[in-house]
Design a protein that fits this description.
The chain is mainly beta. It folds into three domains: 87 residues, Immunoglobulin-like, CATH 2.60.40; 197 residues, no CATH class; 65 residues, no CATH class. Helix content is 11%, strand content 43%. The chain contains three helices and 24 strands. The strands form five sheets. Strands 1, 2, 3, 6, 7, 13, 16, 17, 19 and 21 form a ten-stranded mixed β-sheet that branches. A hairpin with a 6-residue loop joins β1 and β2. The radius of gyration is 30 Å and the shape is globular. The N terminus is likely disordered.
């Protein structure tokens, strides 16, 4: 009897296996034209910017488009028309958002009237402080850990009602080079003196793309304590924390409807994985085509209370070897070694590969012989002698510490 049951199970499994066919879901790209609006007005001085694009398909890139008769009105009946600065980019001139006031965006596209809901600027919660700590995180590779800084924010509400927040984060950090070359290699054993000093100090900028939200709903106190902001890597080759680093945090106090909108956007972007995970979806905002409600519009026109705070991280405050500069000399060759064909050829091979290396002239003092020196050459990558090769900008920010 047991033998019969055993063979029956084998036959059933074989049958089921033969019935399994690969499932290859098809993505329907109907090239549906969807209008996308992105704009915000705050209690801080303008000008305020509205961007309008057209997303043509699931895989297509947004295309900036022009509209007509675009203006912002307030609940007191005041109206300000916007100026088109470039295709699809509109800007206010004298409008100044006020706490407690409500605003609405209006424009026309192909003769159809589009309008947002009324949005009120909420009173801004105070930012009590921004803090950070060095944290390591494990990866799938047991030999490699992520090392970075986790930032936190504290704030206190100004009303008894729950508050809703959205945070934007803007990074700025200074980079420098450790080598000052005097000669550039031209090939064929020829070098030339560098007439002007190469840029040695630069600044890099980056805006976080993460949607970071918070709410005090359900909390005993109407305040946030150690809410997590961004986790900024220190060992990804960007050299964020080697000189001086700054993080600017913009805190938008928003209403519940906008909070739910951004929450849906975040879930749509973050929770994409297997077949049974939540699939990406179009997230509709607060703008409607009044002339033809069937024409859906994406995006959100926001009116928010805004507070900003900036924190600086000094290099001495973060002590971790993975934050150290990574520009090490590829090879040091002394003049006395030039007579050794193998060493000299090795140096030239490095220089010739992609022409991405410089001669860096230096004086090497013989140990114990102060009056004797040997002329030598250090070979380094171009990014180690010119900070703009790292993607940096040589213009010092106005807010940068001396």
């Amino acid at each position: 009897m047991r033998l019969i049951i055993k063979y029956s199970l084998v036959l059933i499994l074989a049958f089921l296996q033969s019935c399994i066919e690969p499932f290859d879901p098809k993505v329907v790209d109907d090239n549906q034209s969807l209008l996308v609006v992105d704009g915000i007005i705050t209690n801080q001085p303008g000008p305020y910017v509205i961007k309008i694009t057209n997303s043509t398909s699931l895989t297509g890139d947004p295309v900036a488009i022009s509209v007509s008769n675009i203006f912002i009105e307030d609940s007191d009946g005041n109206v300000e028309s916007l100026t088109e600065m470039s295709t699809g980019v509109y800007q206010t001139s004298t409008l100044r958002g006020e706490t407690g006031q409500s605003y609405r965006l209006n424009f026309e596209l192909n003769g159809e009237l589009c309008q947002s809901t009324w949005e009120q600027i909420k009173e801004s919660s105070m930012i009590d402080g921004i803090d950070y700590q060095v944290e390591s995180k494990e990866t799938s590779d047991s030999d490699i850990d992520l090392v970075g800084i986790q930032f936190f924010i504290d704030n206190s509400g100004t009303t008894l009602a729950p508050n809703y927040f959205r945070f934007e984060q803007y990074e700025t950090w200074e980079t420098s080079v450790v080598h000052r070359p005097e000669f550039n290699y031209l090939g064929s054993d020829q070098i030339e003196a560098i007439a002007e000093s190469l840029p040695s100090t630069c600044w890099k900028y980056k805006k976080s793309k993460d949607v970071n939200l918070a709410t005090t709903e359900g909390l005993i106190m109407n305040e946030l304590s150690s809410h997590k902001l961004g986790y900024m890597l220190g060992n990804d080759g960007e050299e964020r924390f080697t000189v001086l680093y700054s993080l600017l945090v913009k805190q938008y106090t928003i209403d519940e409807n906008e909070y739910l909108y951004w929450k849906n956007v975040k879930e749509s972007n973050d929770e994409i994985g297997g077949l049974f995970d939540k699939q990406p979806a179009q997230v509709f905002g607060n703008i409607t085509n009044l002339s033809n409600p069937r024409n859906d519009i994406l995006g959100y026109f926001s009116a928010s209370g805004l507070k900003e705070n900036r924190i600086f991280v000094e290099p001495g405050q973060v002590r971790d070897p993975s934050f150290a500069l990574t520009c090490q000399p590829l090879r040091s060759v002394y003049k006395s070694e030039f007579e050794m064909a193998s060493e000299y050829e090795a140096a030239l091979t490095l220089l010739l590969s992609g022409k991405s290396y410089y001669f860096d002239n230096f004086i090497y003092l013989n140990e114990g012989k102060e009056n004797e020196s040997i002329l030598g050459v250090i070979l380094v990558r171009d990014a180690c002698v010119d900070c703009t090769r790292k993607g940096g900008n040589t213009t010092k920010p106005e807010f940068w510490n001396e």
